[in-house]
From TrEMBL:
Family: Belongs to the MGMT family.
Enzyme Commission numbers on file: 2.1.1.63
Top-tier EC class: transferase
Name recorded for this polypeptide: methylated-DNA--[protein]-cysteine S-methyltransferase
Pfam family, one: DNA_binding_1
UniProt source species: Bacteroides stercorirosoris
Record's keyword terms, sorted: DNA damage, DNA repair, Methyltransferase, Transcription, Transcription regulation, Transferase
Domain of life: Bacteria
UniProt GO molecular function: DNA-binding transcription factor activity; methylated-DNA-[protein]-cysteine S-methyltransferase activity; sequence-specific DNA binding
UniProt keyword Disulfide bond, yes or no: no
InterPro entries: Homeodomain-like_sf (IPR009057), HTH_AraC (IPR018060), MethylDNA_cys_MeTrfase_AS (IPR001497), MethylDNA_cys_MeTrfase_DNA-bd (IPR014048), MethylDNA_cys_MeTrfase_DNAb (IPR036217), MethylG_MeTrfase_N (IPR008332), MGMT_N_sf (IPR036631), WH-like_DNA-bd_sf (IPR036388)
One biological process term in Gene Ontology: DNA repair
Span of domain HTH araC/xylS-type: 13-111
Known catalytic reactions: a 4-O-methyl-thymidine in DNA + L-cysteinyl-[protein] = a thymidine in DNA + S-methyl-L-cysteinyl-[protein]; a 6-O-methyl-2'-deoxyguanosine in DNA + L-cysteinyl-[protein] = S-methyl-L-cysteinyl-[protein] + a 2'-deoxyguanosine in DNA
Length: 282
């Protein structure tokens, strides 16, 4: 049975999708609320509790001109670490406590036979997720859209011979706390990831994009030391095994368009707006 937070997110996602599809008509609050079968007052209150701002203000973070401005600011911040250009220092905490350790070949050979993986399911502001960990750190975090069995099956395709136990451990708790903007709990979130040297470098570079910030494929390629390799960088982003913590949702098109996302374009817009509302509000 779905929990209330997941139901709320589904309504918010439906509202975002409806507004996008009817942007030219600029639908009123009453029209949007009616689309998700809620009263205007109830919808406004639910959205405010979720995002911290009104639906109207939230949508201002999803227009092209806003995205272009943040791209310029984040570009300056990424290429000059002494310059924060107005982006909240809180968003920089990703640099401080999320650390990637690459798996050794011995850890993932023979289908991950040497690995013991704990996994669990949890609700987040963006829907149901599955999070998995080894004894060294988080190895997988994925939004669950097709069902829990399918989500676990996708993980087992990566490590078919690992030993799996369904349980919530401290590493997972620390990782999940980030969804609730609780920066006080974890001293460090460790990620234990299977990937090539190129992929690991791209994922590490993604961690340097501050929450509330945005970047482009070209900037990310340059910052990761592979200038011009936009297509390869895009492939590495698509293979990111840890949703949200490694913030591939912050990579958008140079035009300011949000672009595609492995977990759905609407979810990407929801995350970008949610982060902007928290980290960029004065």
């Amino acid at each position: 049975m779905k929990q209330q937070q997941e139901l709320n997110y589904e309504r918010i996602a439906a509202a975002i999708r409806f507004i996008k599809e009817n942007r030219q008509e600029q639908p009123r609050l009453e029209t949007i609320a009616g689309h998700v079968n809620m009263s205007p007052a109830h919808f406004q209150r639910m959205f405010q509790e979720w995002a911290g701002i009104s639906p109207k203000s939230f949508l201002q973070y999803l227009n092209v001109e806003y995205a272009k401005r943040i791209l310029k600011q984040t570009h300056a911040s990424l290429f000059d670490t002494a310059c924060e250009v107005g982006l909240s220092g809180t968003g920089r905490l990703y640099d401080l406590f999320v650390n990637i350790e690459g798996m050794t070949p011995g850890e993932y050979k023979n289908g991950g036979q040497a690995l013991r993986i704990n996994y669990s399911f949890a609700e987040t502001p963006f829907g149901w997720v599955m999070v998995a960990s080894t004894d060294k750190g988080i190895c997988h975090l994925a939004f669950v859209d097709e069902g829990e069995e399918e989500a676990l099956g996708s993980l087992k395709q990566l490590f078919p011979n690992a030993a799996y136990t369904q349980c919530l451990d401290r590493k997972q708790e620390d990782a999940l706390s980030v969804f609730y903007r609780d920066w006080s709990k974890p001293d460090e979130i460790k990620l234990h990831l299977k990937g090539t040297s190129f992929q690991l470098k791209v994922w590490e570079t993604l961690l340097k994009i501050p929450a509330g910030g945005l970047t482009t494929y070209a900037d990310l390629a340059t910052k990761s030391g592979h200038e011009g390799a936009c297509r390869a960088v895009g492939t590495a982003i698509g293979r990111n095994p840890v949703a949200f913590l490694i913030p591939c949702h912050r990579v958008i098109k140079a035009t300011g368009d949000i672009g595609n996302y492995h977990w759905g374009e609407v979810r990407k817009e929801a995350i970008i707006g949610w982060e902007a509302a928290y980290f960029l509000l004065p």
